Amino acid sequence: MQLAKRIEPLQTNVFADMDRAKAKAIAVGREIVDLSLGSSDLPTPTHILSAIADSLADPATHGYALFQSTQSFRQAAADWYTRRFGIVIDPETEVLPLIGSQEGTAHLPLGILNPGDFALVMDPGYPSHVGGVYLAGGQIYPMPLRAEHGFLPVFEDIPSAVLAQSRMMVLSYPHNPTTAMAPLKFFQQAVDFCRQYDLVLVHDFPYVDLIFNNQAAPSILQADPEKGLSIEFFTLSKSYNMGGFRVGYAIGNPTLIKALRQIKANVDFNQYRGILNGAIAALSGPQDCVQQTVEVFRRRRDAFISALNRIGWQASTPDATMYVWAQLPKPWAHDSIDFCTKLVESTGVAVSPGRGFGKAGEGYVRFALVHPPERLEAAVDKIAQFL
Which has the least CB within 10 A, 11, 13, 212, 313? Predict the structure, then answer.
């Protein structure tokens, strides 16, 4: 049987690869401490669950959810954004509900790229940013993110021949996996650069709330308030611990929103309206639950970094996200996949290899802080024994 060539670059995926490694460890009796997947272990706030539960008894929520039936959710998303960033959003033309922001980042290239066009993506970066480009028949130009540049891409290093064929740039700050933050000045430079080269600017923004240094993470639309070339993706998975509910949305340029809506209409409907009602409760209701989540991850970050330093593994303290991005000890510095595979086989501790996020991620691993401090500290003890 012959399959489409477009799926050939998708044969490996960091999460799928680690899932197989975890399965092998389980098969030989290892207890898994999974630090490889950024899926929050915290419960969804009660007022959100109540809104979903109340919807279950309403037959009006049981049918297909087409675009017009999402108006209340779109209005809630627009209002949340305006309160947060001070930019007015039209819920009819500038907001689109999504089944998680990953749906949007994976599908948007279908509306922007023709076969052979380049997309400028971060290296290391989130896998769906690359996968969507390949599915659209595009080419990838990886923008290396280096520690010496604060894990920000250097636009001047992009070859002119690549720029001549490029149609879009993908950014995401606070950044997964490096945990880096980007200032508004950087976004302004990105907007100017994309305007100069006629590029669509895509910003994936799942960690908007998970900030530990009392500095707000800027929106790309603060650098492009006219929404001339930008689109931004949000999710409720991180701020409200709703990963399993698969609810997110896009805000931005009306032409880009329309293109993504056209693609979405041919791929799926929206999720159950009860979930959208829960999302409305999240965006419109009390936000103290968000700060409580931030504080939980702050304590976990501090406990984990302290434990790593105690065993002699020096790692920077992240200012954002739910991860720690750490350089591997020298004996393993050139093969993060081998390190992660052997670590889970030997100890049951699963972490993500930096190489799985891109070539420039080699030499690093990503730890997801998705367990209580005492379990994270126990995992570090196992890592110490392995080392």
Answer: 11
